[in-house]
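job 3f2a | input accepted
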Amino acid sequence: MTNFFKKIFSKQNNNTEKESEAVCPYCKKVLEQQPLRKKKCPFCKNFIYVRTLPSNRGKVLVTEDEAKKINLEWEKVNLRNKWLNNLKQYGITEKDFHIHKDKLSKKFGQEASGQDVIWSIFNELLTKIKDLHTLKMIYYEMALFLNEEGKDFFTVLQQSAKMELMQFKKEEFTKKVRILTAGEDSCEACQRLENMVFTIEEALEKLPIPCKECTRKLYDKTRGFCRCCYVAEIE
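job 3f2a | predicted structure (235 res):
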């Protein structure tokens, strides 16, 4: 636990011990009543913020800076819950999450972040799953995860497209593939790829998608996230 949250927990414990007293987090003077929402202190005139701690759902009175830090913690918790829910389709449970977290925390020598745990679970799934379609979906989820984290995802998204091509190749009856874009919602670079046809071998060698020049943004507003895919070309 960081020093910041030790301090916040201390505040909460003090408030629990003195439930009748609400104390301004700035000037430490006792307020007439417990604020239920943002309120200006009648003594020091600073705004007092009411926040719920993500760890134990306890209510605390905090400064503006402390409120921002708690908001960031909630963002991390919500992100962790979102991706853990996505991983349920691959058989991952809450128990699995905590097992991975304990292992990583011991490895790092400190508490592992939810993002590190989710990424670790993704990578372990890659070593266990052999089905190409499922691997395609896992790589795609990993690319989305990295994009939401503001990290480079391109090579991971490439792997997703590669798994799709390998699945076509395995099925044998598909010899060529056609690139399908998101239509008018695609960027100009992706639209230029619309309906281009490749043999499976050509596509595996050139990897035309994901498009490196894609400018269509998703979560990360600095990188384009290509949504082009392959469809079987029927001759």
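job 3f2a | The longest strand covers residues 47-52.
job 3f2a | closed
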